[in-house]
Task: structure prediction
Amino acid sequence: MNPTYMILVYSVWFLATYFVVTLILILIANRKSLYENRILKDGAPFPFVSVVISAYNEEQKIEDTLKSLKKIDYEKMEFIIVNDGSSDKTNEVVKRYLDDRRFTLVDNSNNKGKAACLNQGIMIAKGEFIATMDADSMASPDILKRTLPYFDEHAIGAVTVSVEARNPKTLLQKIIDLEYIIGLSLFLKLLSTFNCLFVTPGPFSIYRASVLREINGFDENNITEDMEIAFRIHKAGYKIKSCIDTKVQTILPNDFKSLYRQRKRWYSGAIKTYYQHRDMIFNRKFGHFGFFIPFNIILITLGIVLFLYSTYLGLSKFIENVYYYHYTNYNFFENFFDWHFDILAYSGVSVLSFTAFLGTLLIMFVGLKYARVAYSRKKLGMLGYPFIFFLYQIFWIASYFAVIRGRKVKWR
Amino acid sequence: MAMKKRIKSIFVLGFIITIVLLSIIIFVNKTLDKEREKVIDTQIEEVINGFNQMQTLLGMGDTYGNRMTCLIFENMLQDLDKSIWELGQKIDKYRQTSEEFFKSPYYRQQKKFFNEKEVFYLNLLRGVKQKCGFNQPIILFFYRNSEDCKKCDDQSFVLSDINEKIDEEISIFSFDIDMNLTTLKILNQYYEIDEYPCLVIDDKRYCGMQDKNIIMKNLCMIANISVCPEYG
Result:
């Protein structure tokens, strides 16, 4: 093996293993406080909450979202739905709810983009706390009573919740469902324990209104406004907490094309956000966050380089083998079944890859256990979970290219 | 403050655990390397023992008559060919996993020793063939390292493929010219080889890359091999 490749393999393995081991240690150390079971009790002061939703061509899905809003167990709240110049009947669906005085519709004739619409909603919101929600997501009835107690000190700027899949049907959705359970719930909870939560997920997050106004709301030029705002919350000196006692359900991409679109948006947005806030990198002022971000960037970038390098080596080997076979009349399968297992035929890289695979399985099982999800309910997703990351590497590469070439990645 | 300290100690512990895991993996890899050395050494030893037994048998044939010893020779040749083939396969497989091992002076010395013994075995085999009237074709494969001879690996692949099927009916000897052995230099000069890869099939020279069809046709011209009907 060539030395550059070996250095790359060992570096990625070391960083990834350190990351996983540390997260598991944090999980073990905090296992009793993951579910804090905090809830606003009757008699406690109930602050006014505004829920802001930006909707674009959501006539099929927004009805369920609005119904879920009505079911939220909370007295003092308002719902501001900003129609982002939809060409379908989104506004008509929302209008049916306007009899309920808690609902307000802001009907834009032009498409302004999600962040601009959320800012419009924030401008008119009366709440002491402002929750933002996606128009295809369904909030749990206890979502406000569970999240508001987390704002127990002034330094808490935002609180996130568990993001789960809504009726995953296809195999792809079942795999992503698992990824959401582990990645968008438990993982974010663990990051919040050392103040490194780097995203306030779009499906539902709740902010202190004064903080949103202090940092001038969402960045209208950023395609991942929910990530970018998290950086500015940290920059302004506030913390982001995670509450996994409650959840929001969201619709998952149902095919590879929509998954690709979603991830390209996420990853391109992430790259731009990292660049936009490069002053935070290795900046002690931002505590662990200032170090977690560059660690993440290095790990992702080295991972991509390793993936490209391995693909190149694998393809070269494959072409070389095919070339060999042209001397033997392409008898690929003649000796196919003569294969014998010999552990000594496996290289150091194979041993590292095997441990990395075991690490992924460990994350999956530990993640599901602590997310309180029965393995039996996620069997199909578990089969595909360890392999989905190869696909994401391709999406990361595409996103890097899109950013480098200055391509504008669209929200929809 | 206590929380910060706790997080810091977790980061340090995570680092220590990762270092321990990495050390275990490096240890496992080193152990595997040593095991590979051992396996190849043992197999080389077995083959060389086989050569020695053949030499003894050849001597016995002179005393006790060829009829008895030739029968034993036939079985022995098949076993030895199989062992050499398996050894070659293992070396090829392990070469891809641990290049360091195959560049080590120890391995090069072993290979030199083995090549020397192969020349000795070749001479024995020729003697046995004459004595017992065996018509098993002998293929000599002269090669150089892949940097100087791009086609040598290709030729080796083709020979492996052929041997996979008719291992018991032919004998292949692979000689690495870069080993600089005097015995190999003599063979090289005898067959007037100036291009690599080069095959000598029953004393006839075929230099340059030879594909499977050509080799099989040439083999079938000199011996009745089981797969010959496929090659006209």
